[in-house]
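Here is one chain, start to finish.
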Amino acid sequence: MKYKILILMIIPVMLLFSSCALYNKEYISESDYVSPIQIRSDENRIIVRNFNELRIAVQSIIDRYDESEENIIAFDSVYDGDPGTDIAAACKQAKTENAFCAYCVEDITYDIYKVVTYYEATITVHFAETLKNDIIKLTYSGELRKYISEAIENRLRQLVLLVDYSNYNEDDIEGMVSDFYVKNPLSAPREPNVSVGVYSGAGKQKLYEINFDYGLTQEELDLRTVKTSAFVFPGIETDEMTDLEKAVYACAYLIKNTEYSSARSDNTAYSALIECKANSQGLSMAMIALCSRLDLDCRLVYGQKNWQNHYWNIIKIDDRFYHLDVETCINEGIEEGFLLNDESMWVTYRWDMSGYPQCSELADYSEEMFSPYLHVKEAAVPDGPDTAAGS
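Its structure:
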């Protein structure tokens, strides 16, 4: 009868997956831990008969994430290995072959001793503070962009993602953050500086700890978020506008309401639309934000103007692409920066032409088209002191 009981106890062990049991749901469960391994009701012990069962038993102890509980592994009298050697190997594997464990387990200690005809080991797992973080479990890396974009839109300070199959490295994650922000420049008051920790497990499993630094206190970040969220185009109906008229409207709005600034800190859509001052990068980011609300395809271009680093836009009008430099429109006149082709730009501008759409035509427009919009006043934003102004 005892033999049959032991068999029933071992079968669930053999069926248990080696990855952390915390991740059966998308988020770490807050419910009480229920062991996937059969444990004797009269003695808090896990009985193992080979190294594979031992490895899974150690993992199940980690999955409980309870440092206070006494965890005992009993080596059956027919155990087919050396308990002392195997317990050391199992603890090492638990820390190095699972991305979650590499992230949250600081140390695993054990005491092993003989009890008449068999051995027992007492296991203690020491967890890092990182275990308190919410960890999102993904199967494939294709979902990474979604969670990164939501983190930026919600102004999160940290995001932790465990992915079963991923080839992305630190630079790839940083690129996803930058790419989303550039395409959605009002998603946050400024582009966050990002630090990424990558923890690897067996195969292609990876855990990413992504930290976002906006360079602002929480109070400043909240205030800027309120102002950004409240920004709207003032009182002009755009539904019946052509693409060209929408581009004119957006550019005219910035010409009228934004002062050019050479300050490096004035490099955001927030600077241009809320503080009403911006450098070439800030003006270009603001143009992307305005065009997004007008359903126009507008992209950021980084290159040089007169051999100095410079930003401008490429915008799509009626299935054709054109260069648009709002800073030049403000400082040198509309005809010098609005809807130009590659040939006319190449006189004073330089950029990686392979990285952007070809702009082969000049647009047919007149400066009189701007007149109805140049009287448009800046959009209203909530009252209140901007504690972060000028930063």
